[in-house]
Amino acid sequence: MRANGWSRITNHASRMRVKSAKFTKSATHPEHYPRDGRPEVAFLGRSNVGKSSLMNSLLGVRGLARTSSTPGRTQLINFFLIDDAFYFVDLPGYGYARVPSDVKREWGPMVQKYLATRPNLVLSIVITDSRQEPTKLDLQMIEWLQSKEKPFVIIATKADKLSGNQLRAKISRESAVQNDKLIVYSAVTRIGADRIWKEITTRISDHQPRNPD
To answer: pTM for this one?
Structure first.
């Protein structure tokens, strides 16, 4: 790992300034994952919750992670190299009814194996819609991450769509359950961006990089 990329992360943990971001590869099996030892931050959530939009917004770029009007389009694990120092990992969305059942059966084990066994995974970001209650699948994912003692945060997007009272009620209600795991976020107002980057960069700086294979 290049020293300049690593020092930029550790020195600017609360307010990230992304210099470069590029798609690296798609994969379905561990042997296809990057083997350079860089830390990874995974984004997961329902197929139509806006994972790609959140990633693009945090990075300050358009179109890096592809967005689609058709939920369930992402069927691979996609890796994006950020500042030549760490990866954003876009995982297939879950819960879209129109995806063929045989594809769903492949997604589950693929995603679960990545989350359970990937040594470079430093943080999972579970994305929900702030205007809706977490679904059963969202809660199952959160419970699974808790049971495996995997570091994670919950990002409730589209916070600008709520009134002040609605937003305060949302935070109060869900924070009572998830404690400090919940961060509300808006791509419009940028509320929550610094907190998300602080979570990401803190986990990255705590990661012990290993030498490339």
So the answer is: 0.80
